[in-house]
Structures are given as C-alpha cells and as structure tokens.
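Design a sequence for this backbone.
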C-alpha cells in the first residue's frame, strides 16, 4: 500500500506580511485602508482572519490595494528591495473571502511586483478579475500551474475601486495558501 505524501502548503498570512499599500492606501495610510490581520470576530479558520476596511477620502485617487509581501525577515514593505520566495512546484493559490454586507467588489491577484529600478521582481502576474463577495465564506482558487513561481514577492493582493464600492467597504480573507 502506497501512502501519498502530505500536501505541503505555504501559509500566506503566516509567511508574508500585509505591508504593500497602494493607491489611496499609500497616499493616506490607515485613514484609507484599515488592516486588522488578527480579526477574531468570525474567521474562516480559528483563531483569526484578515479584516480590510477601505474608505475614500477627499483627494482620493479612486482605488486602494494591499499586497501580502515576502520580506524574508525584513521590516516593512518590499517592492523589489529583497528577493521573493521560490515556490516552484506549487500549482495553485487557495483562499477564502467574504464581505461585511455582501455585494463588495474586490479584485484578487498574486505576483505582479515589478518596480522600476528595483533589484528583484515577481516572476509572474495573475489576476482573478473583480469578484462580487457575499456574506458567506467562499473558497476561491487561482490556477497557477502555467506560471513561473521562482520569485514570489507579491504573494497575495486585493484591490478595490471607489467606482465599484462608492461608500467604501469591509471584507475578510483567510486561509490563504499556496499548494
């Protein structure tokens, strides 16, 4: 009898840092994007999940985003100053998401960090497009089997726009794993 080896996973919440603020998040910081990566109200997997609240302020650029970035023990954000993780052999990124009220529109991505003048960059760029969230935890999967995962800096990304969410929004992500 042959026993299949255990599936090895990379836990994005544990192994990456939600530090890459973009758009209004980079411009206004926590006034535009409030991140709680230890939210215990209703996680998909105990003990906590990631809660993201976005608000649009006067002078808004109309969009905001946040990357979970590979920092390899460094502090703060990584737009290509440090190398990414080599996740060659992994074929999918699985995560769960839900909205506070339902109807929240969020684009989920992975990879894509390629800042001019930086030494390192992601070896791939993948987007699921914009998804309309419900109030129930829903499983999503990115098929990365055709992607080059030899350098993963941007392990997971969420982007929202004021056009799709004019009153702002709160949404949740959890159990984000490369498998």
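Sequence:
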């Amino acid at each position: 009898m042959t026993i299949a080896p255990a599936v090895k996973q990379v836990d994005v919440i544990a192994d990456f840092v939600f530090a890459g603020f973009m758009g209004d998040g980079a411009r206004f910081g926590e006034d535009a994007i409030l991140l709680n990566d230890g939210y215990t109200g209703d996680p998909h997997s105990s003990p906590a999940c990631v809660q993201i609240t976005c608000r649009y302020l006067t002078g808004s650029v109309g969009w905001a985003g946040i990357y979970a970035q590979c920092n390899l023990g460094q502090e703060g954000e990584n737009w290509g100053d440090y190398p990414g993780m080599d996740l060659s052999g992994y074929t999918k990124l699985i995560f769960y998401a839900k909205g506070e009220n339902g109807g929240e529109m969020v684009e989920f991505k992975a990879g894509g960090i390629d800042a001019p003048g930086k030494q390192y960059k992601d070896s791939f760029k993948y987007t699921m497009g914009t998804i309309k969230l419900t109030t129930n935890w829903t499983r999503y999967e990115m098929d990365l089997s055709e992607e080059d995962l030899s350098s993963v800096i941007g392990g997971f990304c969420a982007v929202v726009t004021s056009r799709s969410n004019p009153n702002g929004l709160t949404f949740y992500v959890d159990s984000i794993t490369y498998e």
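The chain has a mean pLDDT of 94.
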